[in-house]
Amino acid sequence: MEDKNVIAMAADVNYLRPLETAIKSIIYNNSGVKIYIINADIPQEWFSHIRRILSLVGSTIIDKKINANMFDDLAAPYDYLSYMTYARLLIPQLIPEDKVLYLDSDIVVDGSLEKLFGTALNDYFIAAVPDPISGFNAGVMLINNKLFGQHLNKVKELFQVSHNSENTQADQTALNLVFGSKYKRLDDMYNYMIGAEQYLTYNKDLPQAYLKRLKNTINPVIIHYAGGDKPWGTTSGGLMRDLWWQYNNLSFEDTILHRALTPVRKQTKGEFFTFTPTDNLLNLELLIRHLPKFTFNIAAWVDMSPKLNSFLEYPNVRLFPRVSGSKVQQLVQNSNVYLDINDVKDDGILNEVNKHKKPMFSFTSVSCTDKYNNYHIFADNDIKGMVEALKNMIVI
């Protein structure tokens, strides 16, 4: 019987930051784990440092070097995908353990993995969570290495399929083509796919049932920031960005001592929300400067201009480009006041705000007069009046 729970991850030196964050989250919530890192270029010194730290919580890390050139002619359809994604196909050959939990590096583990490790695989090669589009998602897989050892032709078959340039999701496509529906389904809590819910926002023809799955998943254990919109970017429009930063900001000392996760932002006196299809937001910067203890959340369906991005110099501003529908609903619900200060309107957003009976504040030249309830209009130059009204609107 194995004396440790075994995890495998794959990364290159450019992905060390998310890899370290994932490792911090693992050992913060779990002890006695053995972590294999499949890589081609991560320095020995990094492994020596992490190895010393993990030994303090009865865990270890193993450097598993491969030749990355072996992946050169394999399909990688998205820019954010590294060819190292194919390294997980080598797990049955590289790692001499009966059962291995594979984890992508763009995850955080926010709870105990004991129950997951105890999952019986029997005659299944893989246990995974269904992908919102089709098949299963390969970012989290419990792998039956013992069974693979008896059928090594399966590994060869996976690589043969991976040469197909029409693979839409790289090695995930290969895994689904080889195993089809013959995989053991894991609970959604073990692969809570943030990027997937954002993707569904822009693809109305895809099954909306996945959004219900997200809503019905309470206390997810493995949060997976799937897709290209990563939480370590300058901005991101998905859910649970702050949680990733909480684990990232932990020192390794705090991690092994299991000190409390600290908020990434100071407590705010209130939240203002505005949704905009344009970067022309009347008097926005003046409001931000006059209300430094209040948070300004600004969202858009698309990427934001340099003009809007420049507002990030203010600590009380948060930007949500390429925002998901679920995140918009969350921002509306959490807001104290909606700022209707741009001249290009999104009726769907305004109706959502009105439905939740949130106060709306606007200036004369950009206002929607007599259209919504609880709508407050100020002269374009009455910054002081709006600032005082916003303060008075929120009861501390």
TrEMBL record:
Which Gene3D superfamilies does the UniProt entry name for this protein?
Answer: Spore Coat Polysaccharide Biosynthesis Protein SpsA, Chain A
What's a Pfam family this protein contains?
Answer: Glyco_transf_8
Q: Which InterPro entries match?
A: Glyco_trans_8, Glycosyltrans_8_dom-fam, Nucleotide-diphossugar_trans
Keyword Metal-binding on entry: yes
- Alphabetically list the UniProt keywords: Glycosyltransferase, Metal-binding, Transferase
Q: Which domain of life is it from?
A: Bacteria
Indicate what this protein is called per its UniProt record: Bacteriochlorophyll 4-vinyl reductase
